[in-house]
């Protein structure tokens, strides 16, 4: 069981809603994933008429919690404004903080993200900031009152896997808040690896949405995340450089 | 480098054109295999040598578009506010020397047009005017933006180039995107096609995207009018311009269009014809060169072409368009800027998009994101 702020999750697979070929397919894939936390871009939904919005109406399941995101904002001021609007319209104080002033590579701005996290935490938000795999920034965000950190595995949508693994391992080792690896996870194997190194959860969108069969792919990710977490909890055997016999030659000394 | 002009002046049209036409199959294969494509690769991709590789280009383009944008196509619609124009342009129905009744929509008329557009389901509107700075100017644009902002989540403009201060004045009114087409980067031909009016100033137009970048605009659209000059060379300069802008104004998004000259009242015959295969080649070349740029297709193209292009790299499409002020409701019979080729309704186009396995997206921005 994973706990973030005051909410407990059975599933450690968080998902997104973008890039699907239809809202029905999105819904089927999200149900197959077992995900209980689904992020949705404010720019894509009609917050004024959220009862009739096509995306939101397909997310109305008791086990699905909404995580509105601020994708599109360029600074802390815009992010705080958008978060407040999301809280009012969608009746949730959870916010996935995405501040990427660079629309080409969608790289998160660490300075504005820290500023926005400080302010949003004071305003009572459950903040999940999307950030670079920067161990120092993660500690600073902890001090600022973040509820989790969401470091990237590789650039958003790149499907390149865990290119930042050395830094992710440091972040996981040091963190006092849940670590959710977000962005770049391209295959169930990547997700399993993220869980094996001790991530608390992963967020996957593109790899599911643009696959040939998003529903089957979502189920595959579900299993991979579960397997990776089980492996982590069972304590993986560490690789060693030399052979170790399963029946040691010196075992007679212990008889 | 202060503006794109500085870079542009280091290029020679004829030499650039020759270097494109000198590209070989090997250059094309190298470009297709490259992990990141350079401007030289782009030359190969738009060259005649790339024609035999169109299917491979289409497959790569489709794959890159899916990865970056997913299975979605944005929908937008133009709203022509005015056909008043002080420019003489050889290719445009609104040209000053064209005898037609001039009209600029009043606030009441604008809202009548908006009502029809909203009924179609649109959230993204593109405001279009001629170039009449005395009457259709920044004050008019402010009035229009104030009026329509509550009704649309995304407002784009395709109007005359403005000064930096004017763009800075308009962005707080909800202006998100500005399209400004150079028409042609061939400086001498540009003068022939724009003999009178402010638009005859090649340099001022060329530097408009720089002013937009300085004003912090969210998105800007570039393009040339295909048919005025050699399209391969013109589109290379468009790619060069895009490359420059992306590096300098890294916080803006970019879109490209590829309008082909269409019939209009008093019409100009294209100097250079571009067939459908070549347009597909260009679209795929742009996508392979730049994975992130948005590519937009208008109702200038035929229904069959638009049906099939959805899967090849396009990210935005217009539908149900009228190219005359008041065309939706107020004055449907007024003279068009150009004849459209695909007259199907937005609902029909949405069905076509769905039939291709894609999601038609009406909303992809929200004013709450710009505090």
Cα radius of gyration of chain A in angstroms = 19 Å
Could you estimate the helical fraction of the residues of chain A in percent? Answer: 25-40%
The rounded Rg of chain B comes to 20 Å
Mean pLDDT of chain A: 91
Count of strand segments of chain A: 10
> Which quaternary structure do these chains form?
heterodimer
Distinct helical segment count of chain B: 15
Assign the CATH topology of chain A: TIM Barrel
Helix content of chain B: 25-40%
Structural class of chain A: alpha/beta
CATH C-level class of chain B = Alpha Beta
Whole-number total of structural domains of chain A: 1
CATH level-3 fold name of chain B: TIM Barrel
Instruction: Describe the largest sheet of chain B.
Output: 8 strands, parallel, barrel
Strand order of the largest sheet of chain A: 5-4-3-10-9
Subunit structure (chain A): Homotetramer. Forms heterodimers with either ThiH or ThiS.
EC number (chain A): 2.8.1.10
Pfam families (chain A): ThiG (PF05690)
Organism (chain A): Mucilaginibacter yixingensis
Task: Describe, in plain words, how this protein is organized in 3D.
The complex is a heterodimer of chains A (255) and B (371). Helix content of chain A is 38%, strand content 15%. Chain A has 255 residues and is of the alpha/beta class. Chain A has a single domain (2-234), classed as Aldolase class I (TIM Barrel), CATH 3.20.20.70. In chain A, the strands form three sheets. A five-stranded parallel beta sheet of chain A has the order 5-4-3-10-9. Chain A has a three-stranded parallel beta sheet with strand order 6-7-8. The radius of gyration of chain A is 19 Å and the shape is globular. The model of chain A has no long low-confidence stretch (mean pLDDT 91). Chain B is α/β, with parallel strands linked by helices and 371 residues long. The mean pLDDT of chain B is 91. Chain B has a single domain (4-370), classed as Aldolase class I (TIM Barrel), CATH 3.20.20.70. The radius of gyration of chain B is 20 Å and the shape is globular. Chain B has an eight-stranded parallel β-barrel, surrounded by five helices. In chain B, helix 3 (25-33) crosses helix 4, helix 5 crosses helix 13 and helix 6 (107-120) crosses helix 7 (138-148). In chain B, strand 2 (124-128), helix 7 (138-148) and strand 3 (154-158) form a beta-alpha-beta unit. The interface between A and B is medium-sized, with 34 and 27 residues.
């Amino acid at each position: 069981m994973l706990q973030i702020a005051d909410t407990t999750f059975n599933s450690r697979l968080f998902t997104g809603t973008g890039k699907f070929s239809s809202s029905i397919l999105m819904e089927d894939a999200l149900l197959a994933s077992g995900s209980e936390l689904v992020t949705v871009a404010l720019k894509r939904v009609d917050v004024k008429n959220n009862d009739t919005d096509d995306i939101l109406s397909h997310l109305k399941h008791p086990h699905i919690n909404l995580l509105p995101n601020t994708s599109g904002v360029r600074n802390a001021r815009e992010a705080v404004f958008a978060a407040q609007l999301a809280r009012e319209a969608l009746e949730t104080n959870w916010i996935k903080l995405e501040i990427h002033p660079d629309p080409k590579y969608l790289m998160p701005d660490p300075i504005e993200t820290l500023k926005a996290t400080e302010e949003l935490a004071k305003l009572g938000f459950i903040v999940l900031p999307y950030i670079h795999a920067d161990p120092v920034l993660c500690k600073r965000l902890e001090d600022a009152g973040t509820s989790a950190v969401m470091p990237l595995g590789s650039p958003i949508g790149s499907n390149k896997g865990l290119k930042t693994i050395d830094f992710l391992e440091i972040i996981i080792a040091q963190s006092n808040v849940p670590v959710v690896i977000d962005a770049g996870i391209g295959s169930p194997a990547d997700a399993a690896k993220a869980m094996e190194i001790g991530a608390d959860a992963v967020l996957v969108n593109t790899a599911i949405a643009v696959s040939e069969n998003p529903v089957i792919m979502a189920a595959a990710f579900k299993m991979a995340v579960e397997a990776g977490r089980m492996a982590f909890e069972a304590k993986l055997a560490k690789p060693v450089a030399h052979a170790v016999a399963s029946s040691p030659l010196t075992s007679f000394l212990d008889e | 480098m202060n503006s794109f002009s500085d870079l542009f002046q280091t290029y020679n049209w004829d030499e650039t054109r020759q270097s494109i036409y000198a590209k070989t199959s090997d250059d094309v294969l190298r470009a297709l295999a490259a992990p990141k494509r350079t401007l030289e690769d782009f030359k190969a991709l738009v060259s005649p040598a790339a024609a035999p590789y169109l299917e491979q280009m289409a497959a790569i383009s489709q794959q890159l578009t899916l990865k970056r944008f997913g299975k979605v196509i944005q929908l937008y619609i133009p709203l022509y506010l005015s056909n008043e124009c002080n420019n003489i342009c050889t290719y445009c129905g609104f040209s000053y020397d064209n005898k037609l009744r001039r009209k600029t929509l009043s606030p009441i008329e604008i809202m009548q047009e908006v009502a029809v557009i909203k009924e179609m389901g649109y959230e993204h509107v593109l405001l279009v005017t001629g170039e009449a700075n005395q009457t259709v100017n920044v004050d008019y644009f402010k009035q229009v933006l104030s009026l329509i902002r509550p009704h649309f989540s995304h407002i784009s403009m395709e109007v005359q180039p403005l000064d930096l201060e004017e763009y800075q004045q308009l962005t707080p009114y909800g202006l998100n995107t500005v399209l400004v087409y150079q028409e042609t980067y061939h400086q001498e031909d540009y003068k022939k096609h724009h003999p009178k009016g402010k638009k005859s100033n090649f340099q001022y137009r060329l530097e408009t995207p720089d002013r937009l970048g300085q004003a912090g605009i969210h998105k800007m659209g570039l393009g040339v009018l295909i048919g005025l000059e050699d399209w391969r060379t013109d589109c290379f300069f468009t790619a060069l311009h895009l490359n420059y802008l992306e590096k300098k104004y890294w916080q803006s998004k970019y879109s490209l269009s590829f309008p082909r000259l269409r019939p209009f009242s008093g019409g100009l015959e294209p100097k250079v014809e571009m067939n459908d295969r070549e347009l597909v080649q260009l679209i795929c070349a742009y996508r392979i060169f730049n994975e992130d740029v948005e590519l937009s297709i208008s109702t200038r193209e035929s229904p069959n072409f638009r049906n099939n292009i959805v899967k090849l790299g396009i990210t935005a499409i217009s539908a149900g368009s009228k190219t005359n002020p008041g065309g939706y409701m107020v004055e449907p019979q007024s003279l068009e800027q150009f004849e459209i080729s695909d007259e199907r309704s937005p609902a029909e186009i949405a069905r076509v998009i769905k039939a291709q396995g894609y999601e038609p997206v009406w909303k992809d921005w929200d004013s709450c994101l710009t505090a």
